[in-house]
Amino acid sequence: MSQAIDWIAIPAGTVVLINDWDETDHYLKKDHPRRVHVPAFRIAKYPITNAQFAPFIEWGGYHERGWWTDEGWEMRAKFGWTAPRDWHDPAWNGADQPVVGVSWYESSAFAQWLTDLTGEAIHLPTDAEWQRAAQGDDGRVYPWGNTWDGTRCHHSVGRDWRKRETTPVHRFDALGSSPYGVCDLAGNISEWCLTDAKRGSTHPHRLLHGGSWRDDDPVFFRVDRRETMPPHESSRSIGFRVCISPSV
Q1: Domain hosting residue 132, numbered range
Q2: Is residue 21 part of a domain?
Q3: Structural domain tally of the chain?
Q4: pLDDT grade, residue 26 (50/70/90)?
Q5: Distance CA 183, CA 144 (A)
């Protein structure tokens, strides 16, 4: 890769997954907290950037069947994907900006390509892994602590989101990092997770964490907050990061 991934080691520990807002969530029932043990793993310090995603395209990532799930390969053909949807837009394609406009399927294919390239077991983080990397051991509300602080991430709380774009992933290094030094977990982009959320639909949804540049309420940036989307959808506010955990 033209830009190496900076890996952060996360020690084994526990997280408490909660849902106190969504009665329709069949993955995690409302008001039924779930304590989960998370084995040690490594996670990318930053979301995957455009510079890091570019080699996947250059290596024929959108044309190599072996890196895609069956459903992802079908969606790639159906929608004619050859690159992220905003790949050529200068507002979104800066080298150090997070790649956006990628579906869960594209994100997963990138992880499989990187697995084959490196020999490491690379994948999108699970729901519990993502929260563990963001929260640490003290049950904090945001990656930096328990109080909302709009100077620590890229967001639209009290701002007009319609004229915004992503920031370089290292913009809030010192201010917004988690207890383990993982950055950009709140704001800038929401991040695809590996976990499948079966919400009573024939089409599974995938979980997202983090809140994005367009979210305008601090609740979206809580480390225990999760959203869902169909895996074929994409948005200028959604990207991903990857992790390494042999147990997955």
Answers
A1: 44-244
A2: no
A3: 1
A4: low
A5: 10
